[in-house]
Specification:
The complex is a heterodimer.
Chain A lengths: L4 E10 L8 E11 L4 H14 L22 E2 L2 E2 L21 E5 L8 E3 L2 E2 L2 H8 L21 H11 L6 H5 L6 H13 L1 H4 L2 H15 L9 H5 L7 H16 L3
Parallel strand pairs in A: 1-5
Antiparallel strand pairs in A: 1-2, 3-4, 3-5, 6-7
Helix pairs in contact in A: 2-7, 3-5, 5-7, 5-9, 7-9
Chain B lengths: L1 H7 L1 H8 L5 H5 L3 H26 L6 H12 L3 H30 L26 H20 L21 H9 L2 H28 L8 H29 L1
The chains are: A alpha+beta, B mainly alpha.
């Protein structure tokens, strides 16, 4: 069936290394199956490029089932493409139309330098997590189940925040390249659970300081991050981050 | 451009680097701390606007009522001075933080996207709603504010005929007449309406944004915060506009 096949024009950002200026390259790709995922379409492009003796396009990917947070593409100006709550690997070519031009760019933020083509270095996120995104107090052996009662609604709130896969779409989509949603997800997840409460004050202060050090922008409550987040982490966690931060700086002893 | 941005981000950088400051000051100079200050100063200014509007609406009660109110206000002496100093400090803080955070935000993304598309639903304003227009509307409000102080406080509005407001000593003490003189001057009326329109847009994002920054967010009440923010914003803007239209109608 001809409607299963797309002829596409791809405008892909090519950059040979961190120091290179980079620019867009246009490729024609015909006979793209609508059942392919976006990354499979790029695989097909790369096989074509290799066959023609050209360098394949470098892009990040790993699990290809939407949970690892490695894939990171700005597709036609939208992080992870046009769908909500979807990573690039879970985006399918049926969302595009025959003859369409697709512009593919890497995440753009100073803390996320381009390594090559569409691959960016997201170590900045790791350094933010290293500054406090964990529980370090010794709480002894694992307690018996139900020893520490956590209400179901609290579990759900913590789980909604923990759903963050650290892909960086929030930073990519934010007009200020702010990492507030990412940081708030971790702060919120740990601050709502009993294990994380012990260090909540130092954690929020340290993580905000680490976020600032990396050079992320500030939040203007545009909520574009929430719309772009493949894990649908809500900006209500940013409000909790703000509350945690105010409490920590105004009333904490540490 | 980059040099200018760096220059503007210096206050924020200095604030975040100064050693020996009280921990709270240092804490308030981080990105989240600056947001909190932005929200507090913004909401204080909204509080001022409400009081200011209440005063202005007395124009409709006639010359005697309004002038009595103005006289009472001026007779407060030192209290008025303290209030005005606080008000100017709030404006300076709000504008200063806006410039420094905006330039830090710019520095966080040096290469712009070639294609940009919002994932949020349609908004009234292009490129992501009022939140993307805070700097533009803020600048319009600043021009309006500068002119407003020149016209009303210093009675030095260019092209305005203050003769009706003069007393026997040649001082422009009749506030009612001065307001009418400024607002019935078409270029001033146009600037005031533009400034107030920008204020409506600015506050329609600003009020609910400040509440979110201060941590007021709950799924049961978010619709109320947003609606109340927009309604308050346009009530204030339209309230002040009504004074301009009234003056234009009087002349």
């Amino acid at each position: 069936m001809s409607s299963d096949k797309l002829n596409l024009t791809l405008r892909v950002w090519r950059q040979s290394g961190p120091e290179d200026h980079g620019g867009f390259q246009t490729y024609k790709l015909s006979g793209v199956s609508t059942h392919m995922s976006f990354l499979e379409m790029l695989d097909v492009l790369n096989e074509k490029l290799i066959a023609e003796g050209e360098e394949p396009v470098a892009f990040d990917h790993d699990c290809r089932e939407g949970i690892c947070g490695m894939c990171s593409l700005m597709i036609n100006g939208q992080a992870h493409g046009p769908d909500r709550g979807t990573t690039t690997c879970q985006l399918h070519m049926r969302r595009f139309t025959d003859g369409q031009t697709i512009t593919i760019e890497p995440w753009r933020a100073v803390p996320f330098p381009v390594v090559r083509d569409l691959v960016v270095n997201r170590s900045a996120f790791d350094r933010v997590i290293q500054s406090g995104g964990y529980v370090s107090v010794n709480t002894g052996n694992a307690p018996d189940g139900n020893c520490i009662p956590v209400p179901s609604s609290t579990q759900e709130t913590a789980m909604d925040a923990a759903a963050c896969i650290g892909c960086g779409a929030c930073v990519a989509a934010c007009k200020n390249a702010s990492a507030m949603l990412f940081v708030s997800a971790k702060v919120s997840q740990l601050a709502t659970l009993p294990q994380g409460k012990a260090e909540r004050s130092q954690r929020v202060v340290n993580m905000v300081a680490a976020m600032d050090r990396e050079g992320f922008g500030s939040c203007t409550n545009t909520s574009e991050c929430e719309a772009a987040c493949p894990a649908e982490v809500s900006v209500s966690h940013i409000a909790r981050l703000n509350r945690e931060y105010s409490k920590a700086i105004l009333f904490s002893d540490t | 451009m980059n040099a200018l941005l760096r220059l503007l981000s210096i206050p924020a950088l200095i604030m975040s680097r100064l050693p020996g400051l009280a921990p709270v000051i240092r804490a308030l100079s981080t990105s989240v701390g600056q947001k909190l200050l932005m929200a507090v100063s913004g909401l204080s200014l909204v509080g001022f606007l409400v009081v200011h509007l209440a005063g202005n609406l007395q124009l409709f009660a006639g010359e005697d009522v309004f002038n009595a109110y103005a006289e009472k206000l001026h007779s407060l002496g030192p209290i008025l001075g303290i209030a005005e100093t606080g008000l100017f400090a709030m404006f300076a803080l709000h504008i200063g933080l806006a410039l420094s955070t905006a330039s830090m935000n710019r520095l966080a993304r040096r290469t712009a996207y070639d294609v940009r598309e919002s994932k949020q639903g349609l908004s009234v304003l292009p490129s992501g709603g009022a939140s993307s227009w805070m700097m533009v509307t803020g600048c319009v409000i600043f021009v309006f504010l500068t002119s407003h102080i020149l016209d009303m406080k210093l009675k030095m509005g260019p092209g305005v005929d203050y003769t009706a407001a003069l007393d026997a000593a040649g001082e422009a003490t009749n506030s009612f007449a001065a307001v009418k003189a400024v607002l019935s001057h078409p270029p001033h009326a146009a600037l005031y309406l533009a400034g107030l329109f920008a204020l409506g847009i600015h506050l329609s994002h600003g009020i609910s944004s400040a509440l979110q920054t201060l941590g007021l967010n709950h799924r049961n009440w978010n619709w109320l915060f947003r609606t109340a923010g927009v309604v308050t914003a346009w009530t204030i803007a339209v309230g002040f506009m009504s004074v301009v239209f009234w003056a234009l109608n009087q002349s």
